[in-house]
Amino acid sequence: MGDRLFLFLLIASSLVSHLLWALAIPFAGFPHGAPDEIHHFEVTRFIANNGRIPIFGAGKDLYIRVRPGAEDNIYNRIYGWQSLFPPGAYILAGQAIRSLQITDYRSQVFIARLISILYNLFTIYFAYRIASIVFGADRFLTWGIPILLSNIPQVVFVGSYHNPDSLAMMASTLCIYFGLRLLRSGWANWQDALLLGLALGLVGLSKQNSWVVGTITVFLAWSFSIASGDTIRVLWRIPLVALPAVASIGPWLVFQHQNYGDVLAREVFARAWTADRPFLVPYAQQGYGFLDFILKTNWAELTFKSFWGLFGYMSVPLPSLVYLVIFVLCAVSAVGLAGGAVREAVRGKGTWPPFRAQAVLIFVIVAASLLTASVLHSFYNDYQPQGRYLFPAAVPLVALWMMGWRNVLGGLAEKTPVLFFVWAAAYLFNLACLAFAVVPGMRIPVKEEWFY
User: Fold this and answer.
1) For residues 238 and 44, what is the distance between their CA atoms, to the nearest angstrom?
2) By CB count within 10 A, which of 118, 243, 411, 433 is most buried?
3) Dihedral angle at the C-alpha atoms of 109, 448, 306, 385, nearest 10 degrees?
4) What does the pLDDT read at residue 346?
5) 348's torsion region: left (phi>0), alpha (psi -120 to 50) or beta?
6) Which of 257, 119, 242, 234 is nearest to 188 (CA)?
């Protein structure tokens, strides 16, 4: 099978699985719906109906409200404060709905979900492109990385409902791709520099956790190139990256400052959050030390489970045995990755091409940085042990996972049937999670109306 046929089959099969998930996930609130989809859609629907970003606040465009005909409690409220966050996913979906002139809100939801699916398909495609430029002819990695990424149940779940996470994952992946292309060429291609700037602007408009991946990737691509002696060329390319990034994110920052007095609207959001949920106090303010937080909370457990598959409002788990098997697979991969690193160190410099070594180091630093940012957020702010917050670094994490197994399998990984077995098993596991966990676990006992 050639690369083009493989890529066609991969994207086509991924599209089918994503559509099945999108049709099965109910549009509902806690505990039956997808996390915060009703709140994300509140902003998107306003943009679709009005053609502009809403202003958050009492008496303004959006504010905390109770769904039609429901009792006022925390589970029946639509918050509207998502309008304070980066608006990229809302603008793109809202303008698409507006251009199609769709007024029925359930049809609008499905269009918004289709756009999330599109983001995931682009992520899968560029995961293949990243693997190709880093690992070349090694099909176990070049094909295996997008295969695994496209069939992680939680990745498919997140890409099948309306949210900014799927856009953040795609935008971060684009940053990594164009950053690696520039690093490999010594920043010779000015078009790639412009595209990196656009990708960085898209990162800025997607979700805050993707900012970690985007900025660190660009910084490392610059740093490694300067260390290799390409200083003058890199300096000339900086404006080509900065200008499209600033042009993309700048208007939103101006909008935020004009309406909230702060480009991140931190004080406005904090007041609304505290007024609605005064009982949520960060662990750092409860007297926990950081080590206590790591050892005495379930942050690590829930983050691990929800990276692979913990659905709904983290209320629809997989069987415990499944998590155990995934953990063993991860442990074996980690051993293989560590063993490969030791072998490379023992052999000395020159066993890997410099570009591949730099790319893998970028994968490690990006993944470690985002993991650190996620745990610090849960410690100092809202406790959110959610694996999807690591998805902007999904491609680096999956690449490292597959590299570990490449070292474990050795020559066996070079046999095509092994790769097709991995593909079939991953795809069937993905669909099994949908059929036996999501469909029964997220079933709505009574139909809910959130919009009229």
Assistant:
1) 34
2) 433
3) 100
4) 73
5) left
6) 234
**What's the confidence (pLDDT) of residue 452?**
59
- Relative to beta strand 77-78, strand 310-311 is unpaired
Residue 448, SS3?
coil
Domain spans in the chain, listed from the N-terminal domain onward = 3-36+116-259+280-441
- Type of residue at 323: Y
Q: What is the pLDDT of residues 401-438, one digit of tens each?
A: 999 999 998 888 888 888 899 999 999 999 999 999 99
Q: Nearest 5°: phi and psi at 117?
A: -60, -40
- Distance CA(124)–CA(85), nearest Å, equals 26
- Nearest residue to 407 via CA among 358, 337, 314, 346: 337
Report how far residue 320's alpha carbon sits from residue 150's, in angstroms, rounded to the nearest whole number. Answer: 23
Instruction: Write the CB contacts of 369 (distance below 8 Å, at least 6 apart in sequence).
Output: 212, 213, 216
Q: What is the pLDDT of residues 172-227, one digit of tens each?
A: 999 999 999 999 998 988 999 999 999 999 999 999 999 999 999 999 999 998 88
Q: Please, which residues bridge with residue 62 across strands?
A: 56
Neighbours of 277 (CB within 10 A): 12
